[in-house]
Specification:
Oligomer: single chain
CATH class of the largest domain: Mainly Beta
Number of domains: 4
Distance between the termini: 77 Å
Number of strands: 25
């Protein structure tokens, strides 16, 4: 009975148990179907530990940061997690935080077999990773993905994984919420919430619907003790599908999957805003600003528009819009339903990669100045996406710190992602201009630098 629900039909054939016989029904047929595809993941990573006696002293750290003359000692740390095989050739999905820095990865199957695995994609923005079992001429049991959109709050689900390293464990629960966006776990912040017991070690394991399809990847728990409190969160399968598709099509950048860029700043709708717009309930995303290269602007959207739906699905908040847009394949279009001046309109918006325009023109700044050792780039949509920083809604986005060489004085002044706004009263528009200005300035007696960090402006004065 548990295996007869058709794909995408979660809600249509669900029912409350009507008899003692129904109450005694078991999940065992479902577990037997899925469990062979779930793997335990064991990783090893090399960690450099600072052994200087003052390394943990807050007073000295404010002057030296975490660098104390290179007095470090390497040690090997072990960690564990879970994963699930999604292709018969041994392609595994897990969490990025499980395997990110791993130098050795071993996966153990339910039948006791163990294999080495290699990372083929680590996508930190979604906290998803793909591994490949290194075994020739082997086929493996695998599961299929199912859309999580068909789930409803109250539907039964199973979580399978390796909590605390005790071995493969199955727990059951219900979907507690859909589209949970009040967390800061990954860049998309859009999760399935479940009360199925999830503990450390479950990360990367599957969240399974009653038809045996994987509807999510268990990622995090909310806990004050480290154990399960019935608040577990899973990345929806739609995001996993886009990561797999990007890997198979080669749409992967240096650090992550290349995803659509809207070039838009939006805000949620409060009760006051909803009332002013004549909405019965607060929902949607209010367009606050559009970048000059924004595909949304080119499609016809304007500041002040209210986005209420995308591809026919209601958009409740900015996190939902960001998540849904991230699952649209590059080159395709998404249909936005927009409320403007009390009238509903529709716009087809192209899913495009963030443009690398203007040229980033990376430069290593040198000389007798506070910037010596800074790697600076012209800020553009592609650079902003890679660095995970907001992009000004202007034609000229200025200059950003891409990296800082260790051991230089600049390490104490600048951090990756800092926007350089002004130097000694001169507004900075490009790396070429900045390099020329520093060369002409020479050994200035004093420096006044204005940067933007974390959305706040900071003034740095050096004498």
């Amino acid at each position: 009975m548990l295996l007869c629900v058709p794909a995408g039909g979660f809600a249509q054939q669900t029912a409350v148990p009507q008899s003692e016989a129904q109450i005694k029904l078991s999940f065992s047929p479902l577990v037997k179907k899925v469990a062979p595809s779930v793997v335990n993941i064991y990783t090893k990573r090399v960690v450099a530990r600072n052994v200087h006696p003052f390394a943990n002293d807050p007073f000295f750290r404010q002057f030296f940061g975490r660098s104390f003359g290179g007095m470090t000692r390497n040690r090997v740390e072990s960690a564990l997690g879970s994963g699930v095989i999604i292709k018969e050739d041994g392609l595994i999905v897990s969490n990025a935080h499980v395997v990110k820095d791993a130098t050795e990865i071993t996966v153990a199957l339910l039948d006791g077999r163990e294999f080495e695995a290699e990372k083929v994609l680590v996508d930190e923005p979604s906290d998803l990773a793909l591994l490949k079992i290194t075994a020739d001429d082997e086929t493996f049991p695998f599961v299929e993905l199912r859309p999580s959109e068909g789930l409803e709050v109250g539907d039964l689900v199973l979580a399978i994984g390796n909590p605390f390293g005790v071995g493969q464990t199955v727990t059951s629960g219900i979907v507690s919420a859909q589209g949970r966006a009040s967390l800061n776990i990954n860049d998309f912040n859009f999760f399935i919430q479940t009360d199925a017991a999830i503990n450390p070690g479950n990360s990367g394991g599957p969240l399974v619907a009653m038809d045996g399809g994987v509807v999510g990847i268990n990622t995090a728990i909310f806990s004050r003790s480290g154990g399960s409190l019935g608040l577990g969160f899973a990345v929806p399968s739609e995001m996993l599908a886009t990561v797999v598709a990007a890997y198979e099509s080669g749409q992967v950048g240096d650090k992550a999957v290349v995803r659509p860029w809207l070039g838009m700043t939006g805000q949620g709708v409060t009760s006051d805003i909803a009332q002013s717009l004549g909405l019965s309930t607060p929902h949607g995303v209010l367009v606050a600003a559009l970048h000059a290269q924004s595909p949304a602007a080119k499609a016809g959207l304007k500041a002040g528009d209210l986005i209420t739906a995308m591809d026919g699905r209601l958009v409740k908040e900015p996190a939902a819009l960001k998540f849904r847009m991230a699952t649209v394949p590059l080159g395709q279009k998404a249909r936005f339903t927009v409320l403007r001046d009390g009238r509903e309109k529709e716009y087809d918006i192209l899913a495009m990669a963030p443009p690398d325009v203007p040229s980033r023109d990376t430069r290593l700044l040198k000389g007798y100045n506070p910037f010596s050792g800074v790697h600076a780039m012209n800020l553009n949509p592609a650079v902003a996406t890679e660095l995970g920083i907001p992009l000004p809604n202007t034609e000229n986005d200025g200059v950003v710190v891409a990296d800082v060489d260790s051991g230089t004085r600049a390490v104490r002044l600048f951090a990756q992602g800092d926007r350089i706004l002004q130097v000694n009263g001169q507004e900075i528009a490009s790396t070429k201009q900045l390099a020329k200005f520093l060369k002409n300035t020479g050994r200035a007696g004093a420096w006044q630098i204005v940067i933007e960090r974390g959305g706040q402006t900071h003034n740095i004065v050096i004498r």
